[in-house]
Each structure stands twice: as structure tokens, then as C-alpha cells.
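Whiteboard transcription, Tuesday session. T.W. wrote the C-alpha cells on the left side:
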């Protein structure tokens, strides 16, 4: 529920640990296990998003790419309502997944990615 309520701005591991009364390491381990199962995605060491949220973010990127094939960080940031640092962390994760490719200061959608073709899942 903590992740579902957070929308595009998921809680850090330390914040989840405080809420559930566990150590950071135990929460991180559980979230990593969920990531291996495909339920969560580890964006950076202590930041995880649900698969549903990740797919919603990917849909936002695809929508932005329809408007302008060169997706700027500021456009993505504004569309999600996040700060620049968090937006860049997420965009870099999409680069690692193969949905986007960094070109200069922006991103382009890689059409060969499964996330770029939601109907092909």
C-alpha cells in the first residue's frame, strides 16, 4: 500500500523501514526478492517502484515521444510531477532496461523494447 499510495514518487527504503518497524537491510532484501519476481523494480540502491508504476511511467514516456521524439528531462519531470534528480534516476533506469537511449541531454524511445510495445507482452 505504501507504494501504491505514493504514485510516481515511491518511498525510500529507510522510510518503508520506519513505517513497518524493520531494519533497512531487511526491507531492502525483501524488495530485492520482489524485484527478482518481477513485482518491483530497483531503480537505485534504495529506491524501488512497483511494476505497475513502472509501466505507467513508460506510458508517459511513450506519450511524450509522440509529441517530440527527443524527450527532455524537464518534460518527463513535469509530466510525473517529480524533481529533476528523481526524474533522472528513473530515466537512467529506463536506459538500462532498454526502453530509452540517451542522446545528448534527452532520451529517445528504442522501438525494439518490449516496454515500447505494450501489446506485445
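and on the right, the sequence the group agreed on:
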Amino acid at each position: 500500500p505504501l507504494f501504491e499510495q505514493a504514485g510516481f514518487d515511491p518511498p525510500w527504503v529507510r522510510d518503508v523501514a520506519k513505517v513497518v518497524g524493520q531494519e533497512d537491510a531487511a526491507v531492502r532484501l525483501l524488495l530485492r526478492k520482489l524485484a527478482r519476481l518481477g513485482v518491483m523494480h530497483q531503480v537505485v540502491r534504495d529506491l524501488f517502484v512497483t511494476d505497475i508504476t513502472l509501466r505507467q511511467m513508460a506510458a508517459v514516456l511513450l506519450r511524450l515521444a509522440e509529441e517530440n521524439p527527443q524527450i527532455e528531462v524537464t518534460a518527463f519531470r513535469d509530466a510525473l510531477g517529480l524533481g529533476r534528480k528523481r526524474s533522472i534516476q528513473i530515466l537512467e533506469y529506463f536506459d538500462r532496461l532498454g526502453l530509452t537511449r540517451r542522446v545528448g541531454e534527452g532520451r529517445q524511445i528504442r522501438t525494439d523494447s518490449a516496454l515500447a510495445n505494450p501489446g506485445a507482452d
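Someone added at the bottom: The chain has six helices and five strands.
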